[in-house]
Amino acid sequence: MLIAFHLLLACVCAAARADEAPALEHRFYVSAEEARAQDPRALAEKIVARLKTRCDEAGPAVGPSPLGDSYELVVMVPAGALDSIRRDGLRNQHETGTAGGDLRPFARFETEQRLAMLRLPYGVRGRELLPKYAVLRAKALGEQPLPTRYGGVALVLRPEVAARATWTYADSLDFSRRAGLYELEGEANSVLPRTFTYKRRRGDANACVNYCEAQIWGPVTMDDVAEVRGATTAARALDAPGLRAGRAAAALSDSALIAAVAASTGAERARLIGDLAERAPAPEILDALDRSAASAEAFERELALQGLAAGPWKRFKPRLLAGLRDADASVALTAVALADEHRADADVARVIAALRASLGKREPSDARALKEWLDRLDASSLCPER
């Protein structure tokens, strides 16, 4: 039986919470300082409240909620993971280095930033903020079998989790390959994230493909679980070396973390650079980030750029201009978000104009994503098509 979610009450509660705390400090990114200073659940609610007010409520509705009057969020996990979940909570692949589906942390991080319509930190606090995934079930969507390939135990989440959750009509990682668009019922229907107060907008004739996906931002623990279904196998503690390594890196001194970056490679190195970028901008931190900003690896350049944004403008400016010119779309997208607050600078304005003029030279999916972010710089709504 579905757990009834009273949408009006959820809307009022979410709005009240958003009013109690200050809004996000920046229009298009979450800073490392915000990630360090704020409770991740509260920060997650702010991200979702921003999408609700600036997208889902930014234009007139033409129909009811696609979800009907009740729904539930279900996370499928292996029975053997329950003890670990009780101990450490649900964790994402950025934290554990493992996944029940595709293990593509860099591609997924790009998708998640596009879902949030924000560029996000990737240190230990930022990774905790990133989503955990659930199946969105509602009678109005049509009953679909639960995807047991992720595990045979269903964790049904409490209604209040919806205040920091978004959803898409299908798998967000699939659709992000075309900048959040697909063709189910016509040309370029948006599958950008919805919040749980969303009502049909003009042009939205979408439906779930295999399933609707929900993304829960911030920590998820057993306290967020209303019901456990199908737990017939004894739980056992699972090893989580990635999670332990992330916690150990967060406890390192600045100098030890810089040394760890220099000694690491691959995904581990990227996570450590994310930790570095989340630190307060001491001179030695900025020096190390400068080195990473010159890396041949695009993901390292992207993370370093976010960390350097906290430093002095004179030092950050040449890196920002280089980011706007970067051949990699993810780096350029981050630079666009960070450049918003510096558009009064003549050099920044000139390079943004040059980026816009050169979109035709990029891959179509990259050009589409960059155009979306460039258009947001002057738009009153994050989702003008709604």
Question: Can you describe this structure?
Answer:
This protein has 386 residues and is an alpha+beta fold. It folds into 2 domains: 7-229, no CATH class; 252-376. Helix content is 45%, strand content 9%. It contains 17 helices and 8 strands. It has helices at 7-20, 32-37, 40-56, 82-88, 93-96, 105-116, 124-129, 172-175, 241-250, 254-263, 266-277, 283-293, 298-308, 313-324, 329-339, 346-357, 364-376; strands at 72-77, 132-137, 153-157, 165-168, 181-182, 189-190, 212-216, 225-229. The strands form 2 sheets. Strands 4-7-2-1-3-8 form a 6-stranded antiparallel beta sheet. It has a two-stranded antiparallel sheet with strand order 5-6. A hairpin with a 6-residue loop joins strand 5 and strand 6. Helix 11 runs parallel beside helix 13 and helix 13 (298-308) packs parallel to helix 15. The protein is globular and about 55 Å long. The model is unreliable at 1-21, 182-189 and 233-238 (pLDDT under 50).
Number of strands: 8
**Helix amount, in percent?**
40-55%
Instruction: Give the distance, in angstroms, between the N- and C-terminal Cα atoms.
Output: 33 Å
Order of helix and strand elements from N to C terminus: HHHEHHHHEEEHEEEEHHHHHHHHH
The computed structural class is alpha+beta
Task: Give a short overview.
The chain has helices spanning 7-20, 32-37, 40-56, 82-88, 93-96, 105-116, 124-129, 172-175, 241-250, 254-263, 266-277, 283-293, 298-308, 313-324, 329-339, 346-357, 364-376, and strands spanning 72-77, 132-137, 153-157, 165-168, 181-182, 189-190, 212-216, 225-229. With 386 residues, the protein is of the alpha+beta class. Residues 1-21, 182-189 and 233-238 have low confidence and may be disordered.
